[in-house]
Amino acid sequence: MGFPKQLLELGNRPLIRIVTENVLASAVDEVTVVTGCREDEVSAAIKDLPVKIIVNPHFRQGQGSSLSLGVKAINVNTTAFLVFMCDQPLISPSIINTVIREFKERRSMALRPLYQGMPGHPVIFSYSLTSELESLQGDEGAREVLKKLGNKVDYLTVQDEAVILDVDTPESYEKLKLMVFSSKKQIGSGIL
Asked: Which of 14, 24, 70, 111 sits in a 20 to 30 Å window from 50, CA-based?
């Protein structure tokens, strides 16, 4: 996109802050944010929030290196962990809590939400999968681990498009802004 997605703003708040606030408002116990590009600005956007910030000096190698660092920082007493993207600010605490609840009820290895048959985020993984995720490199993301798991991955159909909406292009960012401001959709800790 030519600009770090996590610093794009909605309602004068960077996406990284909105996503982090949504996660903190959910049933998640501990939040770790992995940053790399413009890490000083990203860290400043969330410095007052109760999160652990990890800087990935190898962020240019791809998403896999950031995911690996985040997984390595997970508390050993954790039973499961969620993977979020910084460019999905419409994923509400309610969606997050539903994913967590379903994961627990189904006793899944991994669970991923689906919207109209399309896989989305957040993805929740059993702690038993940490070694697979720690070994990720380059652009290899969690998708590779999900492929290897095959039918051991559970899917949860949701009625909220937020799980598949992300900001990958200037056009998708404009679409997101239009959606938020035309509908007064609630994001983060307030209505924009």
From this structure: 111
Residue range 72-102, pLDDT digits in tens: 998 888 999 999 999 999 999 999 999 999 9
CA atoms within 13 A on the CB side of 138: 3
Residue 155's CB is within 10 A of a number of other CB atoms, namely 15
Alpha helices in 34-123 (DSSP H): 39-46, 63-72, 93-106
Nearest alpha carbon to residue 188 among 17, 6, 29:
17
| 8 A C-beta contact, residue 6 and residue 14 | yes
Amino acid 163: pLDDT: 96
Q: State the virtual CA torsion across 82, 5, 162, 186 in degrees, nearest 10.
A: 100
Q: Is the pLDDT of residue 189 over 70?
A: no
Compute the distance between CA of residue 104 and CA of residue 90 in angstroms, rounded to an integer: 23
> Beta strands 110-115 and 153-157: pairing type?
parallel
Q: Which residues of 77-94 are buried (b: 16+ CB within 10 A; e: fewer)?
A: eeebbbbbbbbbbbbbbe
- Rounded Cα gap, residues 31 and 82, in angstroms: 9
Residue 43 identity (one-letter amino acid): S
Nearest 5 degrees, angle CA 51-CA 32-CA 15? 80
Is the bond leading into 122 cis (omega within 30 degrees of zero)? Answer: yes
**157 sits in which H/E element:** strand 153-157
Superfamily of domain covering 5-191: Spore Coat Polysaccharide Biosynthesis Protein SpsA; Chain A (3.90.550.10)
